[in-house]
Design brief:
This protein has about 400 residues and is an alpha/beta fold. The protein is built from eleven helices and twelve strands. A hairpin with a 6-residue loop joins strand 3 and strand 4.
C-alpha cells in the first residue's frame, strides 16, 4: 500500500469543524464507506465528538451500513440500538429529508464516498438534502472525499432538460471528474442559491490522482462496487442496466463481466476488437449470475480488462459494447423497459444517457466515432462551468 498522502474531510473533522457551529445538533448522512483512514466509521466518530452533538442519522441507497445487496431495493428507517437516535431512510418512500426529520437539527453533515459517475445516486441524495436544508434554513456540510477515478478526465453526454431522474437530477457529464464537495459547490451555487453550504476539504489530493495513490482504505460504497477497478469501468458499463444484458450483478466482478445467454463469447470479442478501443482488452468467457438478470442461467460474454487507465474511455467502451451486441444479435438484443429508479415513463437507457440520442443512434446503426463527437462537445462545454467549482489542482 502506498504511503498515505491524502486525508478526507472525516479525517480532519475535529480540527476543521467550524467554530460558529460548536455544540450544534447534527444529523449525519453516511453509508458503509463513511470511514476514516483507520477504518473507524463516521457514526462512531460523531458519537464521541465533543465539537457537536449527534442527533440523527440518515442513510442513502443500500442503507447506512450497506445492508441492501441489490439496486432499487428500498429500506425502512429504525432506531439506533446503541443511542436510540433515529435512523432515517433516504431511499424508499422518502428520498428528501422532511421538515420533521430536520426540525431538531442545526446542521446536516454529508459523508458519502462517490465513484465519479453521474448515475451513482449518492450525489443526488446530496442534492435532495441541499433542497431540504435550503427550505428549512439549516446548514449543510460536505466532508469531502477523493474521486476514485481521478479529477482530470471527463467523458460522456451532459444530462438534458426533461430527463432528470434519481440517476441524474442536474446537468453533469457521465464522468464528471469532480469530488462530492466540488459537486456540492456547483449544486449550491447554480440550483440552491442562498443556502448555508460548506465543505471540509481534502488535504493531499491532486486532480490526477487515482484512488490507489491516496493510501486510503477502499470500502465498498455499495455492494456491487467492490473495487476501484469497478468504479473505473462503471461510467460505461452501467449503461447495460438500460438493457436486458447482464452487467455482471450476481458475479464476483460486477460491471467488469457482462453478457447474455444468446451471446457467443468469441464472436463478441472479435466484434469489439473492430472498434479499436483505447486502453482496454476483452477476454471471452461464460458465467452464471446468482441473482438479478439471467439468474442461474449460463451467459456468454466477456470480461473487460483495463490496461491503460489514462487512455481508457469508459463511456465510449460502454457504447461500443451496446452497438456490438445490437448489431450482431439484433433479434435478441432489447432495451429494458421502465420503471427504473423511480422513473415510470422514460426508457432506462435514456435517463442513464441523459437523452434519447444515444439509443436512437445505436438503433440507427450510427458509427461510435461519429456519436462520440457530440458528447465530446457537450463535455467540453460543461468544463467551462465545472472549472469554477474545482477545489484542488
Amino acid at each position: 500500500m502506498p504511503t498515505r498522502s491524502c486525508h478526507t474531510g472525516l479525517d480532519l473533522i475535529e480540527r476543521a469543524w467550524p467554530k460558529d457551529l460548536a455544540g450544534a445538533r447534527v444529523g449525519l448522512v453516511a453509508h458503509a464507506a463513511s470511514v476514516n483512514a483507520r477504518l473507524e466509521h463516521a457514526v462512531a466518530i460523531f458519537r464521541r465528538s465533543k465539537k457537536f452533538r449527534l442527533a440523527a442519522l440518515f442513510g442513502p441507497q443500500h442503507g447506512i451500513f450497506g445492508q441492501t445487496q441489490d439496486n432499487m431495493i428500498e429500506w425502512e428507517g429504525f432506531r439506533d440500538p446503541d443511542t436510540n437516535i433515529p435512523v432515517y431512510s433516504l431511499y424508499g418512500k422518502v428520498r428528501k429529508p422532511s421538515r420533521d426529520m430536520l426540525q431538531n437539527l442545526d446542521t446536516l453533515v454529508v459523508d458519502l464516498q462517490d465513484v465519479g459517475s453521474r448515475y451513482y445516486t449518492f450525489i443526488w441524495t446530496l442534492d435532495l438534502c441541499m433542497q431540504a436544508c435550503r427550505e428549512t434554513g439549516k446548514t449543510l456540510i460536505v466532508l469531502d472525499r477523493p474521486n476514485p477515478i481521478g479529477g482530470h478526465l471527463t467523458e460522456g453526454p451532459v444530462l438534458k432538460s426533461g430527463y432528470s431522474s434519481f440517476v441524474g437530477l442536474r446537468p453533469l457529464p457521465v464522468r464528471h471528474g469532480m469530488t462530492i464537495g466540488e459537486i456540492g459547490s456547483y449544486l449550491a451555487d447554480r440550483f440552491h442559491p442562498g443556502m448555508r453550504f460548506r465543505v471540509i476539504p481534502l488535504s493531499g489530493w491532486r486532480r490526477k490522482g487515482w484512488f490507489d495513490s491516496t493510501g486510503l482504505p477502499w470500502v465498498l460504497p455499495s455492494p456491487n462496487m467492490p473495487t476501484p477497478d469497478t468504479a473505473l469501468v462503471y461510467p460505461g458499463m452501467c449503461l447495460l442496466e438500460g438493457t436486458q444484458l447482464s452487467e455482471g450483478r450476481g458475479t464476483t466482478r460486477p460491471f467488469e463481466i457482462f453478457g447474455a445467454p444468446f451471446i457467443h463469447p468469441d464472436t463478441l470479442v472479435a466484434r469489439l476488437a473492430e472498434f479499436k478501443l483505447p486502453g482496454v482488452v476483452f477476454r471471452p468467457l461464460y458465467f452464471q449470475p446468482t441473482f438479478q438478470k439471467h439468474a442461474e442461467k449460463v451467459c456468454g460474454g466477456a470480461q473487460i480488462h483495463v490496461v491503460d487507465r489514462e487512455r481508457f474511455k469508459p463511456f465510449r467502451t460502454g457504447a461500443a459494447i451496446l452497438k456490438a451486441v445490437h448489431n450482431t444479435w439484433p433479434r435478441d438484443f432489447s432495451w429494458k423497459q421502465p420503471p427504473y429508479e423511480y422513473e415510470e415513463v422514460k426508457m432506462p437507457i435514456d435517463i442513464l444517457a441523459g437523452s434519447e440520442r444515444l439509443r436512437k443512434e445505436i438503433e440507427a446503426w450510427k458509427d461510435v466515432a461519429e456519436m462520440e463527437k457530440w458528447w465530446k462537445e457537450e463535455t467540453k462545454e460543461f468544463e467551462k462551468t465545472r472549472k469554477q467549482y474545482l477545489l484542488y489542482k
